[in-house]
Amino acid sequence: MEFELHPAIIIESRAFAILVAPLQMLIESLNDHLGIDRYQVLYICGNYSRVLSRLDRRFRDLEVRRAFTVFQLLTVLEESHHTLMILEHDPLLYEGAGEMVEYASMAMREAAKGSILLLYSPTSDPYLEKMMTYADKVFCFAEGPCAAPRLSAKNNRKTQASSTGQTTLESF
User: Fold this and answer.
1) Which of 72, 78, 101, 117 is positioned for an S-S bond with 112, CB 3.0–4.6 A?
2) Contact (Cβ atoms closer than 8 angstroms) between residue 86 and residue 44
3) Whose CA is closest to 65, among 87, 83, 84?
4) What confidence tens digit (pLDDT) does each residue in 89-116 have?
5) 3-class state of residue 140 by DSSP
6) Looking at residues 3-15, what average pLDDT do you find?
7) Residues 117 and 108: beta-carbon distance below 8 Å
8) How many degrees, rounded to 5, is the angle at CA 43 between CA 42 and CA 46?
9) Global pTM?
10) Residue 92: helix, strand or coil by DSSP?
């Protein structure tokens, strides 16, 4: 069975996939997914979730589990029996336990053997990049280029003054 989250995101069963995308893209994809009721969905997050409060209330088989440590995450993954697991990446889980990233990745890969596992993050970080080597698929979507910061006239004068060799602070 396949899970089509978005036209560009199709995940096969028994797959561990990572999605790095804007938050709104995931929320709209989950809320607009017509066949989500066919799955027993487990949503795993840390202490705070950016996604849960924005989901529609129409999910019938949505179970939520929180993992406050890497060890709790490993336990949740081991005990899961769901057909679809969505894991919201929390880099704080790995602070001070960076060596556990590999074990967590292997546990996600193992949990995906009996279901579909989607690890979501709005941005990449060093922990997530290590996890990408264990994933079956990685989907990355960028929000687009950021606008270059525009200097105000006051900031521009300060920049010009500093380039002329000024070493004292301006008075106010």
Assistant:
1) 117
2) yes
3) 87
4) 999 999 888 899 999 999 999 999 999 9
5) strand
6) 90
7) yes
8) 140
9) 0.80
10) helix
Question: What six digits make up the tokens of 117?
Answer: 């596992």
Q: Two tokens at 138?
A: 């990685």
> What sign does the dihedral 18-19-23-26 (CA atoms) show?
negative
Amino acid, res. 86: I
Please report the sign of the dihedral spanned by the C-alpha atoms of residue 11, residue 31, residue 122, residue 117.
Answer: negative
Q: Which residues, including other chains, have CB under 8 Å from residue 3's CB and lie 6 or more apart?
A: 10, 11, 12, 13, 39, 84, 116, 118
State the greatest distance between any 2 C-alpha atoms of the chain, in Å, as a whole number: 69
What per-residue string of b and e applies to 36-51 under the rule 16 or more CB within 10 Å gives b? beebbbbbbbbeebeb
Number of residues in the chain: 172
